[in-house]
Amino acid sequence: MLVADFDFDLPEKLIAQEPLADRAGARMLGLSRATGRWFDSGFRDFPQMLRVGDLLVLNDSRVIPARLFAHRRGLHTQADRHGVRQTTGRVQVLLAEQLAEWEWKVLVRPGRKVLTGETLSFGHGELRAEVTAHGEFGERTLRFEAVEDFFGAVEQLGHTPLPPYIHREDREGDRERYQTVYARERGSVAAPTAGLHFTPEILSEIRARGVEIAYVTLHVGLGTFQPVRVERVEDVRLHAERYTIAEETAAALNAARREGRRIVAAGTTTVRTLEHCARGGADFAAHSGETSIFIAPGFEFRVVGALLTNFHLPQSTLLMLVSAFAGRERTLAAYRHAVEKGYRFFSYGDCMFVN
């Protein structure tokens, strides 16, 4: 199977550049796996589409303001009429994955100018880091100097890491809107976007209908920003991302499976966490780990019985995951319908419920 088999035509005007004023006001396309039929609805109808006894699983990872600006200081010098002086340059740094207490994998722009051995200074020197390694796809490894409150400095200096297809600078409102209302565990550099539609009122309505809610944590990392660089689906490899299953979540999942209740995943990150942990057939257990699981057509789902998700990029691994769950032809047909009806795509866009 080819990556090109997951292509579709998407007018740029349908890529949402702003969040809706009403967080729960998105349109929602329903798709039946059994019949292949779809219907147009709205996210406010989502609670009515759940069944008494369903277990809804959400990803509670919290997005950090991971886009920082730094000045280069170090290796390059140039001569002028006053002698030799040190040059500096402004670069954008995206914190992509924490490797150790003071060590991060990052993306930098412009990348060609940032060399191993250089020192980057952030703000007025609140943070400083040495470039210690250069990765295969242009990523760098930074080792930060120890400070009393690293994440406090990041909160002060950082910007919301809006995806590259949002063609504007972040604004203060993005800090709240590019974050789920139930986000708790900081560590993501991109939002689990299916969760952006939920409000406290919607969650209360879901519970009142007899639906149980549980949380997993998967920190969205570097792979979100990397395009698929191979032609064959079988050759796709994903970056590892960190996850945690809490004890109460493991118990809820095991009970739902024993009792034959449907497990509904909000978002592809939740799907990947659940299906990774279910490999081997054993019960769920509380633990933390990493997953690089790649889900494409032919995958056997062991846990997830329904999926809420946003609309994804053409030829992306996330579209392949949805296609694995709903069928490639049905998924692409539903996407064509969404384009025809003017649905809003990607992070700040509309959503789709596949059951």
* CATH hierarchy, class of the largest domain: Alpha Beta
Instruction: Give me the CATH fold name of the largest domain.
Output: QueA-like
CATH-wise, what's the superfamily of the largest domain? QueA-like
Q: What is the molecular shape?
A: globular
Topology, number of strands:
19
Sequence stretches where pLDDT stays below 50 over 5 or more residues? 75-82
Short structural description:
The protein is an alpha+beta fold and 355 residues long. The protein has 8 helices and 19 strands. A hairpin with a 2-residue loop joins β6 (77-80) and β7 (83-86).
Write the layout of secondary structure elements.
Blueprint: E1 27-31, E2 38-42, H1 46-49, E3 55-59, E4 61-63, E5 67-73, E6 77-80, E7 83-86, E8 90-100, E9 103-109, E10 119-122, E11 127-134, E12 140-144, H2 150-157, H3 174-177, E13 185-188, H4 200-208, E14 212-218, E15 241-245, H5 247-258, E16 263-266, H6 268-277, E17 287-291, E18 306-310, H7 317-326, H8 328-340, E19 351-354
Parallel strand pairs: 1-19, 3-14, 3-16, 4-13, 16-18
Antiparallel strand pairs: 1-2, 5-8, 5-10, 6-7, 8-9, 9-12, 10-11, 11-12, 14-15, 15-17, 18-19
Helix pairs in contact: 7-8
